[in-house]
Design goal:
It is built from six helices and no strands. By secondary structure, it is an all-alpha fold. The chain has one domain. Helix 2 crosses helix 3, helix 2 packs across helix 6 and helix 3 packs across helix 5. The mean pLDDT is 88.
């Protein structure tokens, strides 16, 4: 919740591109936001989706999810701050959607 609030205070600038980066990292299209994508990766054995996974997670699993989130965020910020890496990531994101749509446009 802290990251969501801080991101809002930054007019969305902190997390801009994080969802797209997670989608590219996973290599498959998704309509879910970064919260659900991170929780799905952090808690693969917990049945449910998104925030509701936290209701079924142990405190140890919650801690591991927070650690993964922070690790992913640090990795993403390095990409976001590198213009070429960021452009490459968005290009890969567009390619993922083009292939899935069958349009072939890149």
């Amino acid at each position: 919740m802290f990251l969501i609030g801080y991101n809002e205070a930054c007019s969305g600038g902190l997390m801009r591109g994080f969802t797209e980066w997670l989608v590219v990292r996973k290599g498959e299209r998704s309509s879910f936001g970064w919260q659900a994508l991170v929780l799905d990766e952090a808690l693969p054995d917990v049945e449910s989706w998104g925030w509701s996974k936290l209701n079924k997670a142990t405190s140890k699993q919650e801690q591991e999810a927070v650690e993964l989130l922070l690790s992913l965020l640090v990795e993403f910020l390095a990409v976001r701050d590198d213009v070429i890496a960021l452009a490459r990531m968005y290009s890969q994101y567009c390619s993922l959607h083009s292939r899935a749509d069958g349009s072939g446009e890149e």
